[in-house]
Amino acid sequence: MISTLPTSHRALTVPEVMAALHLSRFKVYDLIRTKQLPSFTVGRARRIPADALHTFMQHQLEEAA
Questions:
Q1: What is the tens place of the pLDDT at every residue in 13-43?
Q2: What are the sequence ranges of the domains in the chain?
Q3: DSSP state of 12
Q4: Which of 46, 26, 48 is nearest to 38 (CA)?
């Protein structure tokens, strides 16, 4: 029996994060490099957990308030 992962366990590509945040590729990689946005690699492919993006956005909203 194969079960699908919940959508909260989705891994996003850098271009998907760029589109979601309306940021440049350089800025997304800068957020990853500075550990503000957690990510992992599989081979040469960089992935950002959707939960990590959500947490990042929540943290940014809390700081802005």
A1: 999 999 999 999 999 999 999 999 999 999 9
A2: 11-64
A3: E
A4: 48
Separation between Cα atoms, residue 45 and residue 11, nearest integer Å: 11
| Both structure tokens of 18 | 């760029």
Collapsing DSSP to helix, strand or coil, 61 comes out as helix
The CA distance from 30 to 37, in Å, is 9
End-to-end alpha carbon distance in the chain:
46
DSSP string covering 31-53, please? Answer: HHHTTSS--EEETTEEEEEHHHH
40, 47 in Cβ contact below 8 A?
A: yes
